[in-house]
From TrEMBL:
Belongs to the peroxidase family. Ascorbate peroxidase subfamily. Belongs to the peroxidase family. Classical plant (class III) peroxidase subfamily. This is Peroxidase. Its cofactor is Ca(2+); heme b. Residues 27-332 form the Plant heme peroxidase family profile domain. It holds the Pfam family peroxidase. Ca(2+) 2 binds at T199, D250, D258. The active site is at H68 (proton acceptor). The record marks R64 as: Transition state stabilizer. It is found in: Secreted. Its EC number is 1.11.1.7. GO terms for biological process: hydrogen peroxide catabolic process; response to oxidative stress. It catalyses: 2 a phenolic donor + H2O2 = 2 a phenolic radical donor + 2 H2O.
Amino acid sequence: MGGQVLVPLSICVSFWLILHPGLASGALSTNYYANVCPKVESIVREVVKTKINQTFVTIPATLRLFFHDCLVQGCDASIMIQSREDNTAEKDHPDNLSLAGDGYDTVIKAKAAVDEVPGCKNKVSCADILAMATRDVISLSGGPSYRVELGRLDGLVSTSSSVYGKIPKPTFNLDQLTYFFSSLGLNRMDMIALSAAHTVGFSHCDQFANRIYNFSRNRKVDPALSRKYSAELQSMCPIDVDPRIAVDMDPVSPRKFDNQYYKNLQVGKGLFSSDQVLYNDYRSRPFVNIWAGNSAAFERAFIVGMTKLGRIQVKTRGSKSGNIRQDCAVFNS
């Protein structure tokens, strides 16, 4: 895994080409609420800071909530809707059951704080609050801060059935990952940059048990894992352990948003096979090596990826498919 890697000039040039994305997409704008609720971003940030002080889980929970929302029906806070008695809302799909409640709670509390301000009540969407809160948990945990495009409306539909096939699996190979993200308008560079969201947070043992036990039915451990790391994982997740037991996704700096994710991949410490493949596949390895050694370059690429992610299938002003929810967890009556 050692040795110097020469990076093709085309890849280096592409980094420069992505550094200046447009400040707005369609009806989205970084100053959307300037004349309506000008202090909305500082209000949300204070709520996020308070939540983080209460529990670190706020950081990965909010970040993961944003991803799961945007990947299904676009960034419209449909993930926030509570089911009634039939458990058919988006959040009740099996792929969403592991989403920590602190992410939802952050958005709900931020929405309440915004609505308490004269002139702001029912003027800011839950989808935009989630987007702002996500930026804030990233920056408050050591990651980059960036201008968030705003102007999303909240979706009018939330169904469990809409989630099927919309969340990437931890077993995906590079072709599957590339195809999945390209279907959303994100390229391979975006995908590799956004994968670094795994630098914070945790995963349950059952999500990677196949890599440390009975790999391919004829091996005990996935050979892509470092021996030391696989032994550590086995000690934390014995074969008969409760699958709900969780371990840090980044074994080095689990509470800091940084480029350690890529350094881990270089030494066989990618928790999911979909993580480790980014280094093991020659087509994606150059990006891993660049960002492992250049934190600023990684942060620029991550901001571009997050901005593009936040534009997926947004409902904006004038759309009949969205509105501003009075309660983030309930459709307006």
